[in-house]
Structure formats: structure tokens, C-alpha cells
Design goal:
Number of helices of chain A: 11
Number of domains of chain B: 1
Structural class of chain B: mainly alpha
Strand order of the largest sheet of chain A: 1-4
Oligomer: heterodimer
Largest sheet of chain A: 2 strands, antiparallel
CATH architecture of chain B: Orthogonal Bundle
Structural class of chain A: mainly alpha
């Protein structure tokens, strides 16, 4: 078994990706009050487009990465226009929006699967070896193996999180987003273009989700149309842990889930990592549905 | 009975529906009833696939390992799911919409993981009890149980579905059925009217679980192989699509939805590779353009009324213009 310190290092780098992904869920939920279950398909889009650009179009990673994020952002905007806006305008129940997002997710994932076959001859493809620094650096004194790419990912993820925090808390558009989250009608009366705020929210969620997908692909080097499934429920658990719609909660929740997974693998074997996570999700929903740090539903901003 | 099903299969054959497809459609219809029950009560539960798995494994354990006949396996599968659903439902049904959906998705995943690791868990318990290493292989983890006898007959499915439909019809006329509708419309008002909301919700949850389990037992004895992977989130979404396509304003809707979703990939052969795309489109398209589903008397009535009004208006306008002309 690896040392405790090693586990912590592993958990933190995985947690950064989970947090990035969960932030997209939380952002949409906090502003629109709906759960976007197609966010895992957006995650997959980021990895898919990144791989396409690197492997088939031979672009360097520093071009591919932003393009992949933007592509995921546009897919996310498309979701708003196709799966959410028409229902919202009709005043349909929140549940119908959940169902339409499930439908959209199925559609995107299966279209990706169709595209995978001619491109890579199957449903699995790999980033080229040596694309990222993935040879571990061994620190003998602490018996620690650190994979450079994982540390780079941690830095990138934290930078994106800080940028998002700045945008939401310090800029005018962020203020508008918070106003819409607080009360859509009041915000509209104050002259805020609510529709535009929604589109922006989905775009930001898509950027973060796409980045998470690409980074996930780079850590494990392989991409399938189904990688969204790996994180869909994990991300849900993260935002439930942190309180649905709480951005800081999603951040903490992502790291917590990664820690729980990593340590339950260390203790019980990899078969039970998700059993522990979902068991926790279950218990938490029953005991504290507003999350560890969240407010109750009625006062949610 | 056999002659009747044979005749039906002969009628459907030109559409590309063979007997196995018909059986699959009927199982879907039963699953449609299972999700209808919870949706009709206003509970957005996605636990059906999990209970289907429990029913399938418990039923197969009875027929395969204990050599019981199918009807006994069916009863055992349904009973086990019912017993498990009670302690799940009691706490979980306090949650509403999105929270309930997430919790039941979590439940489904835990069921799959437990089934995958069942042998290992049992083995380690036995090892601890006996003090020596014991290896038990029962459910075979991800490989699944193979060689289950194909003992489900088409007439059984027809008979069971008919029984369920009769019970549903009775249910809607009963006190419980009215209470279910009342809870869906407004839970607080229903409670104020003296309806025991907790009791009704739990009864419905158990009924839904038992019906899903029966579908699990039947389908396990059709496919002859069961593995935990077949009952995951994808299956839950599949079942949801039956209700969405058919509509949940009447109990006929999810049954029709299940039948259609079972038949379509066979009728439209070219859809085989596109099954996922297709289900996605159905979910999205029906929610967007046909919110009440295929079977929606209220929607049809509304449409007719609108059409009639539009016609009348046009007639009025024509009359007025003919008056104005001279």
C-alpha cells in the first residue's frame, strides 16, 4: 500500500478535476435552479475535441486545449437553447427539464460513439505517449511518486476556479448572474438581460466541464464516449455534499469525494470506491439535503 | 392460449415483430406500469431498474439454485424486492423532485455494486465465521449467471399484464388511487384533507418495486443470462422513456410507451446502431413537442377544442366579409 502522503497527493489531483466538473453543475443549478444531467456529455465533448485536435489534426496541446474548452462551451449553450429554454418558456415542471437533459446527454454521447468508430476504429482512443510529462518523479525521502502532469492539472484547475470566482464576485456580469440567481423577475425588471445571463452561465459551465474532461483524458491518457459516466454521479455527489447550487460547496465537495474514493480504494479495494461514494450520497441526502454547508431550499439564492 | 399468441405473432410478423420481440415488448409494458405508479403519485423515482435487478437475481436464485418452478420464483422475486423497498422508501420518500431523483439514482448504483461484489462479500463473511478460507461463487459478479431455463411463455406475460391492468383499473376507482392523484396535485392540500401522505407514498413505492421485480424475473427467464450491468442507469432511463413517450395522464400511456419502445428498433431495423441516439431523441422530442406523451386524452381534447374554435373563427370571418361585401 502506498503511503498516506501519496494517497493525499493522488486525491488532491483527482479532486481538482472533480471540482472543476462539479462547478459546472453547481453554476447552472444556482442560476437556473435545474439540474443539467447532460453536463457529463459536455465533459466528454471536451476530451473528445481535444483528442481529435491532437491526434487527428496534429495540433499542439496549447492550441487544442482552449479550442476543446470552447467547443464544450458551445455544446453547453446548445443545451440551453434545445433542452432548457423552450421548456422554461412554457413554464414546464423542473422534472421535464431533467428528463430533456437526460435525453440530450444520451444523444450527444451516442453521436460521439458513432463518430468514434470511423475515427479510431472502436470506442476507445488514446492520447499519444509523451504528449504530457507523465513519467513519475520519485522522491525517495518521502517515498513519494509524483506525476508531473497531475501537478500541472492541479495548477490549471485552481487557476480556472480562481478566474471563475473573480468573474462571479468581482465583475459586473458576475453581479448580474448573482442577481438573476437571487430572483429572475426582479433582475429582469432591473434591466438585466436574463436570457443572455443564462447563455453565459451555460457557456461558463461548458468551459469548465470541457476543461475537466480534457484534463481527465490527459491524466488517464485514454478517451471513450462514455468517460462522462465516470464522473456524472461523482459530480452529483460532490454538489450534494457541498449543497446544491453552492459554488464553493461544489469546490470542496469535489475534493472530498476524491479523498473518499482514494482512501476507500486504499482500504477496501477499487470495487467499493463508488459504493462508498453513493452510500454517502444516499445518507447525506436523507440527513442533510441542503449539503454540508448549504442553506435550506427556501432561502437558496 | 398458445394458438391465440401464435395468431397474434402471425399478424405482427409483417411488421418485423417476432415472438421474442413481442415478449420483450410485454416486459417493457410491465416496467411502464412500474414507473407509472410512482409518477402518477408525483414521485420522480428512478429506482425501478434497481428493483428489477433485485427481482431478477432473487427469482433466478429460486429457480436456478433451489430448483423451484417459475411461478414460485416470481413470487419470491417480487417479495424480496417488496421487502427491500420498504426500508428504502421510508426515509427516501421524504425527499422531493430532484433530491428524490438523485437519491434513487444512487440507490440503483449501490444495488449494481453490491451485486457485482456479492460473491466476494459472502465469501469474506463465511471466511470470518468458519475461521478458514472459503470461496463461494454464486452470482459470478460481472460475468453474470448463465444458462437460466427459458421458462417464460408469451401467454404468461399476457396474463400477468392483463392482471396488472385490471388491478390498475380498480386502483383508480379506489380510495388509494384518488389519494395518489391528490398527492400529485398538491401534497400539502392532500395532507390537510386527511390523506396519510407518508403511508400512501410508501405503499405506492412498494407496489412499483414489486411490479419492476416481476418484470425482472420474467425477463431473466427470457434472456437466459443476467448480469448486473444490464440494470444500471441506462436501464433506468430506458424505463423512464416508456413513461415519457406514452404519457402519464392515463395508465394506458406507459404501457403503450413500453410496447412502442420495444417494437421500434425491430420495426425500423436500421435503427439498431442508433438505438441510443433514438432514445435520446424520443426523450427530448416528446418533452419538447408532445409534453403529454402519445396517449393524452386531455391534450387531444384541448387540441380538438382549439381546432374547432379556429374553424368557427374562420367561418365567422368569412360570414362577416360576405356581409360587408355588398
Amino acid at each position: 500500500m502506498d503511503s498516506f502522503l501519496q494517497q493525499v497527493v493522488n486525491a488532491v489531483s483527482l479532486g481538482a478535476i472533480y471540482s472543476l466538473f462539479a462547478l459546472g453543475y453547481a453554476l447552472v443549478f444556482s442560476i437556473l435552479g435545474v439540474l443539467n444531467l447532460a453536463h457529463s456529455a459536455v465533459f466528454m465533448t471536451g476530451a473528445f475535441v481535444g483528442l481529435l485536435l491532437v491526434d487527428k489534426l496534429h495540433q499542439p496541446l496549447w492550441i487544442a486545449a482552449p479550442l476543446a474548452m470552447i467547443a464544450a462551451g458551445f455544446v453547453s449553450i446548445l443545451l440551453e437553447f434545445v433542452a432548457f429554454r423552450p421548456l422554461r418558456q412554457r413554464g414546464a415542471a423542473r422534472m421535464s427539464q431533467l428528463i430533456s437533459s437526460i435525453g440530450a446527454a444520451l444523444l450527444i454521447v451516442n453521436l460521439a460513439q458513432l463518430a468514434f468508430k470511423p475515427l479510431w476504429g472502436g470506442t476507445e482512443a488514446y492520447f499519444p505517449q509523451g504528449l504530457v510529462p507523465d513519467q513519475p518523479i520519485v522522491i525517495e525521502a518521502l517515498s513519494l511518486r509524483i506525476v508531473p502532469i497531475r501537478m500541472i492539472i492541479l495548477v490549471i484547475a485552481l487557476a480556472l476556479v480562481i478566474a471563475l470566482q473573480y468573474l462571479v464576485m468581482r465583475t459586473r456580469i458576475g453581479q448580474q448572474m448573482r442577481a438573476v440567481a437571487f430572483n429572475q423577475r426582479t433582475a429582469a425588471l432591473l434591466g438585466i438581460n436574463v436570457g443572455r445571463v443564462y447563455v453565459l452561465t451555460f457557456f461558463l459551465a461548458g468551459l469548465l466541464g470541457g476543461a475537466a474532461g480534457l484534463l481527465y483524458g490527459l491524466v488517464f491518457l485514454n478517451v471513450t464516449p462514455f468517460i462522462g459516466d465516470d464522473v456524472a454521479l461523482v459530480g452529483l455527489t460532490a454538489i450534494v455534499l457541498g449543497g446544491l447550487g453552492s459554488i464553493n460547496g461544489a469546490l470542496v465537495g469535489g475534493f472530498l469525494v476524491a479523498a473518499i474514493q482514494t482512501f476507500s480504494i486504499a482500504i477496501g479495494g477499487s470495487n467499493y470506491k463508488n459504493a462508498v461514494v453513493f452510500g454517502l450520497l444516499f445518507v447525506l441526502l436523507l440527513a442533510r439535503p441542503q449539503g454540508l454547508f448549504g442553506q435550506s431550499e427556501s432561502t437558496r439564492a | 392460449m398458445d394458438a391465440l399468441t401464435q395468431a397474434l405473432v402471425d399478424i405482427l410478423r409483417p411488421l418485423g415483430i417476432t415472438e421474442p420481440v413481442l415478449q420483450f415488448m410485454l416486459v417493457n409494458a410491465i416496467l411502464g406500469i412500474s414507473i407509472y405508479l410512482t409518477l402518477y403519485t408525483g414521485m420522480f423515482s428512478l429506482a425501478n431498474a434497481g428493483f428489477m435487478a433485485i427481482g431478477a437475481y432473487a427469482g433466478v436464485a429460486a429457480t436456478q439454485f433451489l430448483g423451484m418452478p417459475l411461478w414460485l420464483g416470481l413470487i419470491i422475486g417480487m417479495a424480496v424486492a417488496g421487502i427491500i423497498s420498504l426500508p428504502i422508501g421510508l426515509p427516501v420518500l421524504r425527499l422531493k423532485d430532484i433530491y428524490l431523483a438523485i437519491a434513487t439514482i444512487g440507490f440503483g448504483e449501490v444495488v449494481i455494486i453490491l451485486l457485482l461484489n456479492f460473491d466476494e462479500i459472502i465469501s469474506s463473511i463465511a471466511t470470518a465465521l468458519q475461521g478458514e478460507r472459503v470461496r463461494i461463487r454464486l452470482l459470478e459478479g460481472a460475468r453474470g449467471i448463465k444458462g437460466i431455463p427459458k421458462s417464460t411463455e408469451t401467454w404468461m406475460l399476457f396474463a400477468f399484464l392483463a392482471l396488472l391492468m385490471f388491478l390498475l383499473w380498480r386502483l383508480h376507482k379506489s380510495r388509494l388511487g384518488r389519494a395518489m392523484a391528490a398527492i400529485r396535485e398538491d401534497e400539502r392540500a392532500a395532507a390537510n384533507m386527511g390523506i396519510n401522505v407518508v403511508y400512501v407514498k410508501n405503499v405506492v413505492f412498494v407496489m412499483s418495486a414489486v411490479v419492476a421485480a416481476s418484470a425482472g424475473v420474467f425477463s431473466a427467464h427470457l434472456t437466459r443470462i443476467i448480469s448486473p450491468g444490464a440494470y444500471g442507469f441506462d436501464k433506468a432511463v430506458d424505463i423512464l422513456s416508456f413513461a415519457v413517450l406514452g404519457g402519464t395522464s392515463t395508465w394506458v400511456g406507459p404501457i403503450v410507451g413500453g410496447l412502442v419502445m420495444g417494437a421500434l428498433p425491430e420495426v425500423l431495423r436500421f435503427l439498431n446502431d442508433l438505438r441510443g441516439v433514438f432514445i435520446g431523441l424520443i426523450l427530448l422530442g416528446v418533452i419538447l413537442f408532445l409534453p403529454g406523451g402519445l396517449i393524452n386524452p386531455a391534450g387531444v381534447r384541448l387540441l380538438l377544442r382549439r381546432a374547432r374554435r379556429a374553424l368557427r373563427r374562420r367561418a365567422d370571418a368569412a360570414e362577416r366579409s360576405s356581409h360587408a361585401a355588398p
